[in-house]
Amino acid sequence: MNRRDALKLAGLALALPASSAAWxxxxxxxxxxxxxxxxxxxxxxVLEFFHYGCPHCRDFDPLITAWKKKLPADVAFRAxxxxxxxxxxxxxxxxxFTAEISGELGKLQEPIFAAVQDEKRPLFNEEQVRxxxxxxxxxxxxxMETYKSFxxxxxxQRADQLARAMKIQGVPSxxxxxxxxxxxxxxxSHENTLKVADELIERARKxxxxx
Length: 211
Fold this sequence. Notes:
Elements: H1 3-9, E1 21-24, E2 29-32, E3 44-50, H2 55-68, E4 75-81, H3 87-101, H4 105-117, H5 126-133, H6 140-147, H7 150-165, E5 173-176, E6 180-183, H8 184-187, H9 190-209
Parallel strand pairs: 3-4
Antiparallel strand pairs: 1-2, 2-6, 3-5, 5-6
Helix pairs in contact: 3-4, 3-6, 3-7, 5-6
């Protein structure tokens, strides 16, 4: 799902910024300019941009979940919820980070996709989240305490800034080493996206080694 569609779903109509990226390898990925440094310079960072309202992200999730388990030690993976200055997507991002920090993400990831897409649950506000997680997590009160925390709010803000800096126009998108962007719209399929990501990881590894 691209950014324009997501914003339409939220009842917004915002202009998209121009992308600062160059097409490469027959259009299967783009080279970001400028490149962006990862959290750990010693690792090749792989970022997946997604949001819970995106059917394509839901389809991609089991594939990338299996793929990331096989990544070598020099690669660090991180999922980043897209926000695009949208209050509803920001609420869903807050839920994602809360589940991640609370150690509940593995159990809640698919149920959140289902609740948002199939049940049309508005899991972007505190009241709805509190009602929904009751009975699903061991300590709902602690979960909601984390949900409302300054730390989670900061993570949501940072995720929004990161997507803007990398000019993310659609989800799911994968960025390798802060400089290579790919997605199914470029590679042809979710499966090909992961194949391209593997190739980009190897390319980044060779670049770091000066080869």
